[in-house]
């Protein structure tokens, strides 16, 4: 098999920050930006983590430039070389007030391995979809199917994020109470 080098190109984006993805409790790994109604995940290299501006919070506008590389899988990886508050926001404090408040997107991880599915995992997924849709939370809360959550004998299993609350032996009847507990009592 021959090794072919994937082309690297530059990019520059001015977009609104949706979220800062943090790993290991303190390492800034990615910025989630929205630009022209598309969401981008931009990798933050180690060099930029130490100089990260504390004024950069979800909802602010950023100017990000860097390199983009297409991986063998076809996915384009964006890596930042410079991150700054957008000039339009630096002009006046009023711009920051006009920006819409973005709530962090919550998610529910539902195990879809065979044991959990046999014990009612599909029904739990359908009940979650219906419960969230009925309460108007379908756009705020994502349901993500996962692999094994290491509690096979107590399936179906789910984890509510960002609380990291784990639930086992979940039935469809329990779903409305879980949604109320985690998403509607803000």
Short description:
The chain has 186 residues and is an alpha+beta fold. It is built from 5 helices and 9 strands.
Key attributes of the depicted protein:
alpha+beta; 9 strands; single chain; four-stranded mixed β-sheet; about 190 residues; 5 helices; five-stranded mixed beta barrel
Describe this structure in words.
The protein is an alpha+beta fold. Helices cover 24% and strands 38% of the residues. It has helices at 46-49, 87-91, 94-98, 114-134, 175-184; strands spanning 8-23, 27-35, 38-43, 61-70, 76-85, 106-111, 141-146, 158-161, 165-167. Strands 1-2-3-5-4 form a five-stranded mixed barrel. Strands 7-6-8-9 form a four-stranded mixed beta sheet, covered by helices on one side. Mean pLDDT is 79; it is low at 89-103.
Q: Which band does the percent of strand residues land in?
A: 35-45%
How many E strands? 9
Which stretches are low in confidence, meaning pLDDT under 50 for 5 or more residues running? 89-103
Helix content: 10-25%
Global Rg: 20 Å
Largest sheet: 5 strands, mixed, barrel
Shape: elongated
- Which structural class best describes the helix and strand composition? alpha+beta
Mean pLDDT comes to 79
Provide the succession of SSEs: EEEHEEHHEHEEEH
Sheet with most strands: strand arrangement: 1-2-3-5-4
